[in-house]
Design a protein that fits this description.
By secondary structure, this protein is α/β, with parallel strands linked by helices. It has 9 helices and 8 strands. Helix content is about 40%, strand content about 20%. The protein binds S-adenosylmethionine.
Length: about 260
């Protein structure tokens, strides 16, 4: 089990959809449309299928999708939500990139995934994609920026500790966390890809209060684990934040970046 529960993924999906950079989505769709049809897209770390729901409507009819995750519960939820018409589901641990179902794949997609990976993990995976000259659309990588509209004196320390925790091992080696996009860009350029990066910021207001609350609560354990702030300080900060999520100036922005890498040849 990955520990990513379907409820969290459902809460973030509408905000992810709005955050995705539209130019990169257009360029992704143009690339797939330009392949000999039907093209095949592989979504890795698919969760319940959010990437498919966001992008499949932009692609030619008949495009084949493969959805891959190592969490059987999330894969089962994806299959239940999407059905299996034109979609294959693959249970696979990406720590073993060698076994990925890459045959005939034009481009790999991933959302909210690469910031979980270590440099070594990403390099290995990108190396395999480069061998096959497969493109990559890696969206919604957390970039370390969280800004609330109503400031609290502990915000900067909470975010710094949260970001420190984002660099710990999430099952794929010590995670790149907020440095993921820069790392991917550098490696992919070295492997002969044209790479474009664009911000994909979550803009959370009172309408997205449930996501905001889940996000705030999800920060507490990582920050406690880092241990630089006292539990009472974190408790006081959380109470302040929760008191305003549905009110005036209670929202926040959470920074992410999208990346599209297309093989030069
Ligand atoms: C933050 S979730 C994103 C899910 C989905 N892409 C979305 O945007 O809703 C990260 C996903 O990566 C998957 N994952 C994490 N480590 C993995 C691994 N070693 N092999 C395959 N999938 C993995 C998790 O199970 C989870 O579905």
């Amino acid at each position: 089990m990955s520990g990513f529960d379907a409820k969290w993924l459902r809460l973030r999906e509408p905000v992810d959809v709005l955050a995705r950079d539209p130019v990169l989505v257009d360029n992704f769709a143009r690339f797939v449309t330009g392949q000999s049809l039907p093209a095949t897209v592989l979504d890795i770390g698919c969760g319940t299928g959010s990437t498919y729901r966001s992008l499949s409507g932009r692609l030619p009819e008949g495009t084949v999708w493969r959805l891959l995750d190592y969490d059987p519960a999330l894969l089962a939820a994806a299959e239940k939500l999407l059905g299996s018409d034109g979609i294959g589901f693959f249970r696979h641990d990406l720590n073993q990139p060698a076994g990925m179902p890459l045959e005939g794949v034009s481009i790999v997609t991933a959302s909210a995934f690469f910031d979980l990976g270590s440099a070594a993990f990403c390099d290995r995976l990108l190396g395999v994609l480069a061998e096959h000259r497969i493109g990559l659309y890696a969206a919604l990588n957390y970039d370390g920026r969280v800004e609330w509209h109503r400031p609290h004196p502990l915000d900067a320390r909470v975010v710094a500790d949260f970001n420190r925790h984002q660099r710990t091992d999430k099952g794929l080696g010590p995670a790149l966390g907020p440095t993921a996009t820069d790392h991917l860009k550098g490696v992919l350029e070295g492997l002969g890809y044209d790479v474009v990066v664009a911000p994909s910021v979550w803009r959370i207001s009172a309408q997205e209060a449930d996501l905001h609350i889940a996000f705030l609560r999800g920060m507490v354990d990582p920050v406690l684990e880092v241990g630089a702030l006292q539990p009472e300080e974190i408790g006081e900060w959380l109470a302040f934040r929760l008191a305003y999520v549905r009110g005036d100036r209670g929202g926040c922005e959470v920074g992410h970046h999208d990346l599209l890498a297309l093989p030069r040849d």
